[in-house]
Each structure stands twice: as structure tokens, then as C-alpha cells.
Design a protein that fits this description.
Layout: H1 2-44, H2 50-64, H3 67-75, H4 77-81, H5 84-105, E1 115-121, E2 129-136, E3 144-152, E4 157-164, E5 167-168, H6 169-183, H7 187-199
Antiparallel strand pairs: 1-2, 2-3, 3-4, 4-5
């Protein structure tokens, strides 16, 4: 009898955890649908000025991307050795550079719409991340693949990586920045100075 009860209890826990995963996936997909529709499609296809567009992209990135989380990943082991001033300066310039870069990159999708292709689990220790798969039909060639890595931070969902045509925003930046720090005599300060120069 005890074995039967234990089996039923285990099955119940498994069903509960699977249900939670399904709910998280739906929540993540709805979150990205909102981001792409209101934050990207409507913004890109609007007739607002470049100044207004940049301001709205800034709001989008600050609210929907966890740039603190991404910044820590991008700097890797150098985040642990950086002091508070370096961390603050890096996150600030990294945020501004991403807004500038991705507002221009998403202009490629002007007049187009994201199609949703489901979700898949992402490898994370806390099991709090999921990939939302989308594609954008292009005038020529195959549709552009855009994969969103979404993290559940409790009160809301946030994007922690964007992968366009199998190129990861976070991993690409990590490789580039850590390589720069290794080669630069000024280390992290040298990287921050270089990123500030790119903004200009």
C-alpha cells in the first residue's frame, strides 16, 4: 500500500512539474508575441522620427531585456574581477550599444511579421529559461530565423539572448569582449573605452 501511495505521489509531482513547464512556455511565447508586435513590428513600421524610434527601443530594451544578466555572462570570469565602477560603466555602454545595433538590425524586418514556431527547453540550472522560436519571411530566399532565449525572473519574463540565423548576441559578444580584454594592456577599462568609441 505504501509503495502504491508513493508511486501515485511521484506521478502527481511529475505531472505538476510538467504542467508548470508548459505554463512557463506559453507565458514566454506570449511575452515574445507582445515584444515583437508592439515593440518591434509596430515601431519599425511606424513613421516616427529616428529620435523617437531610438527612445522607444531604449524603453523596450530596458524593460524586456535583462542586460545585467547578459552583461555578467558576456564578461564571464572578468565580471568577478571587475570593480563596481567598471561593472556599472560596462553595463551602461553595453546597453546603449545594443540599442543602437539592434534598432538598426531590426530595420531589416520592416514591413514583415514574425511567425511563431513553438518553444523548446533551454539548458539552465534553475530550469527557468526557454527558447521561443520564430521566423520572418523575406522577399528572397529562406525565412530569417530568430530565436529568443527567455528567462522567468518571477514577476515577469525577460529576454537574455537573441539568436538571429544561429548567431547568438550573447555568445558572440562574450567571445569578442573576453578576447579584447586578454589582449588589451588596459583590460576591462580598455574594453569600456573601445565600446564608448564605437557609440560615437
Amino acid at each position: 500500500m505504501k509503495k502504491i501511495l508513493a508511486f501515485i505521489f511521484s506521478a502527481f509531482l511529475l505531472m505538476t512539474s510538467e504542467a508548470k513547464a508548459d505554463i512557463d512556455a506559453v507565458k514566454a511565447e506570449n511575452f515574445i508575441k507582445n515584444v515583437t508586435k508592439q515593440g518591434i513590428e509596430e515601431l519599425i513600421n511606424s513613421d516616427v522620427s529616428e529620435v523617437e524610434k531610438k527612445a522607444r527601443f531604449t524603453k523596450l530594451f530596458n524593460e524586456d531585456l535583462d542586460l545585467d544578466f547578459i552583461g555578467k555572462f558576456v564578461l564571464g570570469r572578468y565580471w568577478r574581477t571587475a570593480n563596481e565602477k567598471q561593472r556599472k560603466e560596462f553595463i551602461d555602454v553595453y546597453r546603449k550599444l545594443n540599442i543602437q545595433t539592434w534598432s538598426e538590425r531590426f530595420n531589416e524586418f520592416k514591413g514583415k511579421h514574425f511567425e511563431f514556431l513553438g518553444t523548446e527547453k533551454a539548458n539552465s540550472k534553475a530550469n527557468d529559461q526557454v527558447y521561443v522560436n520564430t521566423q520572418v519571411p523575406m522577399q528572397e530566399g529562406e525565412p530569417a530565423s530568430v530565436k529568443w532565449r527567455v528567462k522567468d525572473v518571477g514577476s515577469k519574463m525577460q529576454i537574455v539572448d537573441i539568436i538571429i540565423e544561429n548567431v547568438s548576441l550573447a555568445i558572440t559578444a562574450q567571445k569578442e569582449y573576453t578576447s579584447y580584454i586578454q589582449k588589451s594592456p588596459d583590460g576591462i577599462d580598455g574594453l569600456i573605452k573601445d565600446l564608448k568609441a564605437k557609440l560615437k
